[in-house]
Design a protein that fits this description.
This protein has 440 residues and is mainly α. It has one domain. It is built from 16 helices and two strands. Strands 1-2 form a two-stranded antiparallel sheet. It is globular.
C-alpha cells in the first residue's frame, strides 16, 4: 500500500501527475455499479489504498457534488483531480471517468437498433430490465442508510418522494427548500457561525476561473450555433436544448435524473418508449462510467429515428455525441466555478447542514425513480389520474407482466441474498430473459 503523508488540511502534495493519470484510467475502466459503487471504488482507491485525501476532505467534496445537477460520481472525480493537480487534473479525472463508458455505450446503442427486432435481443433486454430494477432498489437502500441519520432526514426524504410522485413539484424547488431548512435549522441552534480557516494556496489553483469561463463559453456557443444554423425545430437543436436544461435543473445524480429524462423523453418528445428507457439504463449498467450515459442512448435513438426520413446510424452517432457533450460539459463548469469557494467554506457548519438536508431529500427522489420504473416495467397499461393538484399514473393490475415480475424477484434474491456483483447479475438475468423468450 502506498503511504503518503497528508498536510494539515488532509491533502497529499506528493502525487505526480503521471501517477494520477494512471489511477484515473484505472478508475474509469473499473467504475461499474452506478454512483454508489463508483463512489465506493474511489473511496477505496484514493483514501484507503493511495491515501491522497483524508475522510473529511472526501466527504466534503461528495456533499458538494450531491448538491450539483448531474452525475455526482463523475463530478467527485473531477473535484478530487482538481484538488490534486488543478485544472489539468480535474479535466483528466473527469474525462477519463467518462471515456471508456461513452465509447462502449455508443457501440451498444448501434447494436441495440440493429438487433432490436430479434427474439434474442428482446430476451436480453427483458432480463436487463429486471436486473436494473433490483439494482435501483439496492441503490435506494444504500443511499438511504448513508444519508438518513435521524427522524428529520426520513421526513425530508418522504417529502421529496411525495412532492415528486404525487404533485410533480419542480425538483429545484425541493432542493432549495431542503437546503434552506438545513441551513436555518443549524443557525437556530447557534451552530451556523463560520469557523473557516485559511486554506493553503495548493487548493486555489491558477486558471480555475478561466477554465470555468471556457466551459461556459463552449456550452453557450454549442446552443447558440445550433439555433442560428439549424433553427429551433431541428432535432439536434432540441436535443442540445433539452439536455442542457437537464444539466441545470436535474439534481441528485443519475438515479434522480432518470425520472425526469424518462418522463420527458417518453411522454413529451416521444423519442422512445417507456420500456426502451429501461433498456438504456440496462445498457448503462453494463458499462463503466456514469449511469447518466443513458442520455447518450436517448440521443442516439432520437436522432437515429427522427433526424432524417430513413433511420441512419450516422445520425444516431451525431445525436449521441451531441447529447454527451452538452450533458457533461456543464459538470466541469460546476466544479471549476464552485469548488474553490466550497473549499473555503469547509468549516461552515450551517452550510454542511444544508448539504446534509439536500442529500436526505435526494433519497426521496431515488425512491420516486424506483417506483416510476417499477410501475412501467411491471404494468404496461397505465391510467392517468389528475385531481386536487395530484398527477398520478395508476397501473392496471390486470396488465401485470408475470415474466418480468418473476425475473425481478430472482434478480433481487441474487443481489441481496447471494451478493452477486453487478456484471454477474446482469449476465445471469440477461441469459434468463433470452431463455424465457426463446422458450415461449
Amino acid at each position: 500500500m502506498q503511504q503518503l503523508n497528508l498536510d494539515e488540511e488532509g491533502l497529499s502534495t506528493q502525487v505526480s501527475f503521471h501517477d494520477a493519470v494512471r489511477v484515473w484510467w484505472r478508475i474509469g475502466f473499473l467504475s461499474f455499479g452506478g454512483p454508489a459503487g463508483q463512489i465506493a471504488l474511489m473511496h477505496r482507491i484514493i483514501i484507503d489504498e493511495k491515501r491522497w485525501l483524508d475522510e473529511s476532505r472526501f466527504l466534503h467534496a461528495l456533499n458538494y457534488c450531491m448538491l450539483l445537477p448531474g452525475p455526482e460520481a463523475q463530478q467527485l472525480a473531477t473535484y478530487i483531480g482538481w484538488l490534486m493537480h488543478g485544472v489539468r487534473g480535474g479535466l483528466v479525472a473527469g474525462i477519463l471517468f467518462i471515456l471508456p463508458g461513452a465509447v462502449t455505450m455508443m457501440i451498444l446503442s448501434c447494436l441495440y437498433v440493429v438487433l432490436g427486432d430479434f427474439a434474442v435481443a428482446d430476451g436480453f433486454f427483458l432480463g436487463m430490465k429486471a436486473a436494473v430494477m433490483a439494482i435501483v432498489i439496492q441503490a435506494l437502500i444504500r443511499i438511504g442508510r448513508k444519508a438518513l441519520r435521524d427522524r428529520t432526514g426520513y421526513l425530508l426524504a418522504l417529502a421529496g418522494f411525495l412532492g415528486l410522485f404525487l404533485f410533480n413539484v419542480p425538483f429545484p424547488l425541493l432542493i432549495l427548500a431542503a437546503g434552506l431548512f438545513g441551513y436555518f435549522s443549524a443557525r437556530s441552534q447557534k451552530q451556523g457561525q463560520p469557523t473557516t480557516k485559511p486554506i493553503p494556496d495548493t487548493t486555489v489553483r491558477p486558471g480555475t476561473t478561466l477554465a470555468a469561463l471556457v466551459c461556459l463559453l463552449l456550452w453557450i456557443l454549442t446552443l447558440a450555433g445550433l439555433y442560428a444554423i439549424a433553427g429551433s425545430d431541428n432535432l439536434y437543436t432540441q436535443l442540445a436544448s433539452f439536455f442542457s436544461k437537464m444539466a441545470v435543473v436535474t439534481f441528485g445524480g443519475a438515479y434522480a435524473v432518470m425520472s425526469y429524462v424518462a418522463q420527458q423523453g417518453v411522454e413529451h418528445y416521444h423519442w422512445l418508449q417507456p420500456g426502451e428507457m429501461l433498456d438504456g439504463l440496462g445498457l448503462a449498467e453494463t458499462t463503466p462510467g456514469p449511469l447518466i450515459l443513458v442520455t447518450q442512448f436517448v440521443g442516439f435513438l432520437a436522432a437515429y429515428r427522427h433526424a432524417s426520413p430513413v433511420p441512419d446510424l450516422l445520425d444516431g452517432f451525431i445525436g449521441g455525441l451531441l447529447t454527451t457533450w452538452v450533458t457533461f460539459l456543464p459538470c466541469f463548469f460546476w466544479i471549476f466555478a464552485g469548488a474553490p469557494y466550497i473549499e473555503k467554506l469547509r468549516h461552515h457548519r450551517a452550510l454542511s447542514s444544508a448539504l446534509a438536508a439536500i442529500t436526505a431529500t435526494v433519497v426521496g427522489v431515488v425512491a420516486n425513480l424506483a417506483v416510476w420504473f417499477g410501475l412501467h416495467a411491471l404494468f404496461p397499461i397505465q391510467n392517468r389520474y389528475q385531481s386536487y393538484g395530484m398527477d398520478l399514473q395508476i397501473p392496471d393490475i390486470f396488465s401485470l407482466d408475470l415474466p418480468m415480475f418473476a425475473l425481478i424477484c430472482i434478480a433481487s434474491i441474487m443481489l441481496f441474498r447471494y451478493k452477486l456483483n453487478v456484471l454477474t447479475l446482469l449476465g445471469v438475468c440477461a441469459l434468463s430473459g433470452i431463455i424465457w423468450t426463446l422458450a415461449v
